[in-house]
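Hi C.,

You asked whether I'd gotten around to modeling the 125-residue construct. I have! Everything is below, sequence then structure, no commentary in between.
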Amino acid sequence: MSSEVSYVRITKPIMVKEVTLASNVLERMKRENKSIALVMGEKGVIGSLSRERIERALSTGHDVPVREIMSTNILTVTGNEDCLDLLSLIVKNKLDCVVVMRGKKVDGVITLHDVLYTIQKRALT
């Protein structure tokens, strides 16, 4: 049984600029039913945000640009990694997601939920 990324569900995130207010990103995430946002800079991905991270930040009563609350620990994958390696990578590095790149283009993200879903699905087949 192969466990390559190509068989793992790849989530399409929303992409925002670093100056975007957290409340605007959360509103868009809810509207588009997304759980992850990638923060884009001039040279590509500079951060990521989970819906939970934004909600936690907004619970203080202050709306801030996403650059102030984003995770800057960004790891990319090519699409050929083993599913269990992805699980280890995400958990050990406390990541919201890993970014799937196809060449220099962002193809999507893989979240812990995506990996666990794939492992469970394979266990049942």
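If it helps when you're writing up: Helices lie at 22-32, 51-58, 83-92, 112-123.

Thanks,
B.
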